[in-house]
Amino acid sequence: MKFRSFFINLSLLILSFIFMFLIFEAIFRYINLNQDTQNSLSGNKEFCFDCYEDFFRNYKEYSQDKVLRILLIGDSVIEAGCPNAYNLEKEFNNRLRNLTYYGKDITFINVIDGGRGGDHTNYILQRLRWYLNYTHIDMISVLAGWNDHWYNYDINPCETNECYYGREFAHEIKDHESANCEFCNFISESTYNALLQSNRKICAESFTKNPGKFLSNLNHSNTTIYRVPLQNFSDNLVEIIKIAENNDKKISFITPPNALVPGKLSKMIILDCVFLEKNMLLPIHNLYIEKMRQIARKNNISVVDLDNEFNKIEDKEPYFSDIEFDPVHVNTREGNKLCNKIYFDNIIEQFRNDPLISFELV
Question: Which of 100, 160, 317, 330 could form a disulfide linkage to 335, CB 3.0–4.6 angstroms apart?
Answer without folding.
Answer: 330
